[in-house]
Design goal:
Blueprint: H1 2-8, H2 10-38, H3 52-84, H4 89-109, H5 125-132, H6 143-180
Helix pairs in contact: 3-4, 3-6, 4-6
Keywords: Coiled coil
């Protein structure tokens, strides 16, 4: 009955929308705070006196970026070459699909945090536990845990697509050598 009365008043709907936006902004602020405070530092000076682990991680990250750029460029070259050939339609379709998947996952991995990219919950579990009791509210993972899981999934997806891309590029090289011979 109260919902019916609230629907009649337009100001209540506007207030409800503003409250929801404030809640999302508040939850996002909590997430960014937790991410900054509890996130793993880029370099752990206490455990690594000569910073060798930091340098190793940095070189691995740089080589991974170079690998992504090189694979993307090679895929683009292969697409241009295959579009001129008439008998390579299956490989062309596969490379196009793989190239678009690679672009999407690279964008997703490098994406900044925002209220649209962070899975903000509909309610605050701590507040709901205070209101309803511990046994009435199911346990949920924190936003930080959810984001770390999502980042791991995205990274695994990126690695899978890179492996597929390299296989497709090898197929392209074999096709190219077969045509030249």
């Amino acid at each position: 009955m109260a919902d019916h009365l609230e629907e009649m008043d337009e100001k209540v709907d506007a207030n409800r929308i503003m409250d929801q936006a404030d809640f999302l902004a508040n939850q996002f602020e909590k997430f960014t705070h937790d991410f900054r405070e509890k996130g793993e530092p880029a370099c752990c000076a206490e455990t690594d006196s000569d910073h060798s682990k930091c340098q190793k991680a940095e070189t691995e990250q740089k080589s991974a970026k170079k690998d992504i750029i090189n694979v993307t460029r090679r895929l683009q070259k292969a697409l241009v070459s295959l579009e001129m050939m008439t008998e390579s339609s299956d490989l062309l379709k596969a490379i196009r699909k793989n190239n678009s998947e690679l672009r999407e996952i690279v964008i997703k991995v490098n994406e900044e945090f925002s209220t649209s990219t962070v899975p903000i919950p509909e309610y605050d579990t701590v507040d709901m536990k205070c209101l309803l009791g511990d046994d009435q509210v199911p346990e949920k993972k924190t936003l930080l845990e959810l984001m770390k899981e999502q980042q791991k999934k995205d990274q695994a997806e990126l690695e899978r697509i890179l492996r597929e891309s390299k296989d497709l590029l090898n197929d392209f090289e074999h096709l190219k050598k077969g045509i030249k011979a």
